[in-house]
Write a structure and sequence with these properties.
The protein folds into three domains: 136 residues, Response regulator (Rossmann fold); 127 residues, GAF domain (Beta-Lactamase, 2-Layer Sandwich), CATH 3.30.450; 103 residues. Helix content is 64%, strand content 12%. Strand 4, helix 4 and strand 5 form a beta-alpha-beta unit. It comes from Bacterioplanes sanyensis.
């Protein structure tokens, strides 16, 4: 059964939360920030429900202290507060909180959040244990050159990347190779966020740096590496290890610069694809117009030829009676007239073939346009 520490200077608030949780969890209480820190040192809980406004140390100060201590930084902290502004929530997040819920407390929502945070904490604990074992085995071999090898691998991967989502995932993978937990914003015309939700506290913090210049900013225990194209939020930078922190900070800045260059390349390719599509659309439109005009002219020409041939044959037949020709001469003239008519009809048919061929050219353009669209 998980151990829950409820921290609130108001006894009635502690009583309400205890009544809600005592059937599911083991509950202990503290009435101040100092008492919370003392209890946590003596009997570390599995999760802490922390009030914000209290005499002495505020909830924010207590949270920063807990998250700065390696012995307690993995304990989930959920703020339970009457303050419900975005600024207050961001301040809680910057202090290191894992969740924020407002009073009066929605019991079902709190229980669900606690389940999620306890599961995450268990997963992090397991991951940390595995990472610790791996680190112990690899510590002697770990050098700065191996970290640079991770950057080289990132460069190799980015050459194959053609989407903002894949680029963000590659940044997170590279950060994980440094044992860092990250979330990433790719600042394209439609921003892409990976590793957190756009509307949660981490996503909001990323959004604050969308329009910032290149740099590194600290928010509580979190570090933000930002360029105009890429914003990376690192949740667990090793601030207590100055040498490792400085090394990782430089590596992450390099990753951000490389990723920014790839974003610019992707945007240039997208613009080129749009320009090609526009050019193809213009060619198709021009071809349609030309074929329509040519088809109309060919149809008109065919009609005129047929009319003239029919008129000529009719006129020739009527003239034969007045020329006084014998039957053999009349047959020769009529044969000549029919041959001429057939040649003209053949030319008329050639116009139809040309019109059909132009139609096939247009169909080929349509198929090419469709294949380009489906391949994008």
């Amino acid at each position: 059964m998980a151990l829950v520490l409820i921290v609130d200077d108001a006894a009635d608030n502690r009583m309400v939360l205890s009544a809600l949780l005592e059937d599911t969890y083991e509950v202990i209480e503290a009435d101040s920030g100092d008492a919370c820190l003392t209890i946590t040192t003596q009997q570390p809980p599995d999760i802490i429900l922390l009030d914000v406004v209290m005499p002495g140390k505020s909830g924010y100060e207590v949270c920063v202290t807990l998250k700065s201590d390696p012995a307690t930084q993995m304990i989930p902290v959920i703020f339970v507060s009457a303050k419900d502004t975005t600024e207050e929530r961001l301040q809680g997040f910057e202090a290191g909180a894992d969740g924020y819920i407002t009073k009066p407390v929605d019991g079902q929502k709190l229980l669900q959040m606690m389940i999620e945070k306890l599961q995450q904490a268990e997963h992090h604990k397991h991951t940390k244990e595995q990472a610790g074992q791996a680190m112990q085995v690899a510590m002697e071999a770990m050098t700065n050159s191996s970290e640079l090898g991770n950057i080289i691998e990132f460069v190799r991967q980015t050459q194959q990347i053609r989407t903002a989502e894949s680029l963000a995932a590659a940044i997170m993978t590279s950060a994980a190779s440094f044992q860092l937990s990250a979330c990433v914003l790719i600042n394209t015309h439609e921003p892409v966020v990976v590793g957190c939700a756009v509307d949660d506290l981490a996503g909001q913090l990323l959004g604050k740096f969308r329009n910032h210049d290149k740099g590194i900013t600290h928010h509580g225990i979190r570090t933000i590496i930002h360029t105009p194209q890429v914003v990376v939020l690192i949740k667990n930078m090793p601030l207590s290890d100055e040498n490792r922190y400085g090394r990782l900070k430089d590596h992450l800045a390099i990753l951000a610069d490389i990723a920014s260059g790839q974003v610019q390349l992707l945007e240039a390719e997208e613009r080129l694809a749009i320009e090609r599509k526009q050019m193809l659309d213009e060619i198709i439109k021009m071809t349609e117009s030309t074929i329509q005009h040519a088809g109309h002219e060919a149809s008109q020409q065919t009609h005129n030829i047929r009319q003239e041939v029919m008129a000529m044959v009719e006129e020739l037949e009527s003239m034969l009676f007045s020329l006084g020709l014998d039957e053999d001469q009349e047959k020769k003239l009529m044969h000549l007239a029919h041959r001429t008519s057939e040649r003209l009809q053949s030319r008329s048919h050639s116009l139809d073939v040309i019109d059909e061929s132009l139609g096939k050219v247009l169909e080929s353009l349509y198929r090419y346009q469709s294949s380009r669209t489906s391949g994008e």
